Amino acid sequence: MSTSTVVRDQLFSTVVQERRSVRSYDPNYKIAKEEIKELLEEAILAPSSSNLQPWRFIVIDSQELQEKLLPIAYNQKQIVDASAVIVVLGDLESYKLTEKIYNRSFEQGFMPEDVKNSMSERTYKTYSSLPVESAKQIVYTDGGLVSMQLMLGARARGYDTVPMGGYNAEQLKEAFGISERYVPVMLIALGKALNPGRPSVRLTVDEVTSWNEMSL
User: Fold this and answer.
1) What distances in angstroms separate CA 126 from CA 93, 118, 134, 142, one per listed residue?
2) CATH number (domain holding residue 78)
3) Could you list the residue range(s) of the whole structural domain that residue 98 is in?
4) What is the pLDDT of residues 69-112, one digit of tens each?
């Protein structure tokens, strides 16, 4: 049994409490591509609007390409020291896969054929006619869900991450051949912490929560 498998057997509450945004990584530690793929397989179980799963990923684990990304991400050192950087993108045309997704649901017995047909037609029509800003809001939301699931999955395996919004999106798209169909959601550095992430404080639940009506 691998070390990562043993680590994954910890309580979810422990994983949540121990997750930190780590910016200092062991540059000599490399996570195997197969394990990164397993991590992504767990992450994509996240929910998404109408199950269209608009997330797309570019896994950058080549040192040469991490160096290329470094100035685009404002020279943040974790870009080159982490085992990999995962570029999380949102597909503004994910509705084009509606039929494929719903057909698979039908074939696996998750929905009857008449429901599949009606949902497929309705979903395609709705999402293909959305204003661009509405479509972006959806993929940003879904991209955030899959990103959080990925980061918790990494911690459960004994790895660390940091979500990054500090980068030049236009330069990123140009450098890595990303078309206008896709919008960058965030970068996630993934690796083995060299130094632990610093603890941080949170507002209390009572400070951020209202019951039944807004009272804050």
Assistant:
1) 12, 12, 11, 17
2) 3.40.109.10
3) 3-198
4) 999 999 999 999 999 999 999 999 999 999 999 999 999 999 99
